[in-house]
Amino acid sequence: MTAPPESADRPILEVTGLSKTFVSRGLLATSRPVKAVADVSFTVNRGEAVALVGESGSGKSTIAKLLLRLERPDEGRIVLDGDDVLQSEPRRATLAYRRRVQMVFQDPFGSLNRTHDIAHHLERPLLRHHRATKHDVRAKAIDLLHDVGLEPAEEFITRRPYELSGGQRQRVAIARSLAVDPDLLIADEPTSMLDVSIRMDILTLLTKLKTERRLAMIMITHDLASARYLADRVLVLFRGRIVEDGPADDVVTAPAHPYTKALLASIADSGELGPATAGVDPEDIPTEGCPFAHRCPDLLDVCATTEPAGRTYDGRLVRCHLYPENKD
Ligand SMILES: Nc1ncnc2c1ncn2[C@@H]1O[C@H](COP(=O)(O)OP(=O)(O)OP(=O)(O)O)[C@@H](O)[C@H]1O
Ligand SMILES: [Mg+2]
Q1: What predicted TM-score, i.e. pTM, was given to this entire model?
Q2: What is the pLDDT of residues 153-186, one digit of tens each?
Q3: Residue 260 falls within a domain, yes or no?
């Protein structure tokens, strides 16, 4: 009998059927619940970067919050390195869990404390998560700065965040997330607040870390060009649903879902996700059928009545009636 596959072969993250509906507690009795994440399933392997793309309000950050366990899903499973975390972990994320899933935020200045030097930002997590002792913590913090390309590291370590550029601050934020040796790094729009000239440097750094450390990454982005550069796979979200999931090059160069096509067309026109894909008034959201039906140029009769299940097409998953359903 052959041995079971090593855990290294198993995806580090397996998300199945994740759903989250927010019921806003506003004053309006008419306010409808918002299905922010609906039946989302995907996997991420070690050394793999997955990009989550979609217009504002499509549920990208909610997925990140569910994975960080800042929000609890209504349904679904999150298996991290074989561990069914919603079953095995306490309701509130523990210190040990917080080590495993790290986040890099959009605003590198907001995420660093201006009263503390860089050493503090790196040494604190190293000590708190027992990745260093009092004796070697400074050396380990300096090593992290080398890893993220902040040279001379011995000089940067004593600076304060306001003495760094935006790109340098984002490097510190990345170093801080690496300090605890996470299983999964989630980066929410990591380059969108940076000057265009240095965005590529940060993407190159993330790519290097992914390869050298076999780090699993989820990058949330509006920018399909960045997604294509960094990510191995692109997941396209529309109203909380994954409408397309496939190899980054294929999704970006030959999109299958009409929504992905619209996204790419809007980028071709304006350079980023523009009005062609802007969200609609919540009153216009259909309650049955395909959620994209009211904006779809390729509408079929069935689209108005039946929400399409996912089907595999050309090496990817597409949720669209234009493609034949898979036979079991
Ligand atoms: N705590 C909350 N309470 C109520 N509704 C929420 C809450 N968090 C998110 N939502 C709603 O859920 C939907 C998805 O929001 P989310 O922040 O995940 O979108 P996003 O894709 O990250 O958008 P953006 O690109 O603008 O950051 C939106 O309609 C949002 O208004
Ligand atoms: Mg967001």
Answers
A1: 0.91
A2: 999 999 999 999 999 999 999 999 999 999 999 9
A3: yes
